[in-house]
């Protein structure tokens, strides 16, 4: 259960090959808010010493929706929380044999020299820009049929047979980014 600003593992490519490193999820954007998701449409993503493409290994993710309320009843204080995991009989959206049960990778970007927030701050301290470092964000695209009832965007799940294409940076992003097909994810209500 990784939260925004927590460190997590990412896989990235550099001149010496691939490396698995731990980096913070989100950097502080120009308006002082965390950049944890990034729209992929119409953008090219290159690799260089300051950042580039990465893969984020996951075994599931959460989406939050407004909880239903009866007409005239007060609005619930919390949103409904949904857990998305790979369906046991998922179509081959991950591209062949899975490296581990239920493991998939999300396309992302990493950057060096980004603002991580106020010096000495806590996970919720955004703005200020006193601390810089490396961080990553997840790419999003239009939702596939499993996600659309819950959210207007989805994270970009990269098929396993395209991981090297994504990390290498030679294949255009538009050729690799697409919504997942129906039946990819099992959805359960979470607490």
Describe this protein's structure.
The protein is mainly β and 191 residues long. Helices cover 5% and strands 41% of the residues. The protein is built from two helices and 13 strands, in the order E-E-E-E-E-E-E-E-E-E-E-E-H-H-E. A hairpin with a 2-residue loop joins strand 1 and strand 2. The protein is globular. The protein starts with 6 loop residues before the first strand and ends with a strand.
Q: What form results from the Cα inertia axes?
A: globular
What percentage of amino acids are in beta strands? 35-45%
Described by strand count, sense and barrel closure, the largest sheet is:
5 strands, mixed, barrel
Query: How large is the count of helical segments?
Result: 2
Spans where pLDDT lies below 50 across 5 or more residues: 120-129
Which H/E pattern describes the elements? EEEEEEEEEEEEHHE
Separation of the first and last Cα atoms: 12 Å
> In which range does the helix fraction lie?
under 10%
What is the oligomeric state here? single chain
DSSP, total strands: 13
Placed side by side, the strands forming the largest sheet appear as 1-2-10-9-6
Radius of gyration (CA) equals: 17 Å
Class from helix and strand fractions: mainly beta
Mean pLDDT: 87
């Amino acid at each position: 259960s990784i939260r925004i600003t927590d460190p997590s593992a990412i896989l990235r490519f550099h001149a010496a090959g691939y490396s698995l490193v731990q980096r913070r999820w989100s950097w502080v954007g120009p308006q002082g808010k965390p950049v944890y998701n990034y729209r992929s449409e119409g953008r090219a993503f290159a690799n260089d010493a300051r950042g580039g493409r990465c893969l984020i290994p996951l075994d599931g993710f959460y989406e939050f929706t407004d909880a239903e309320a009866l007409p005239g009843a007060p609005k619930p204080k919390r949103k409904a929380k949904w857990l998305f995991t790979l369906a046991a009989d998922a179509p081959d959206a991950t591209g062949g044999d899975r490296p581990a049960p239920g493991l998939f990778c999300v396309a992302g970007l990493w950057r060096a020299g980004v603002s991580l927030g106020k010096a000495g701050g806590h996970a919720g301290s955004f703005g200020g820009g006193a601390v810089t470092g490396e961080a990553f964000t997840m790419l999003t695209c239009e939702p596939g049929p499993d996600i659309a009832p819950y959210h207007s965007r989805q994270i970009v799940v990269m098929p396993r047979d395209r991981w090297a294409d994504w990390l290498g940076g030679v294949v255009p992003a538009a050729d690799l980014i697409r919504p997942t097909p129906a039946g990819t994810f099992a959805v359960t209500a979470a607490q």
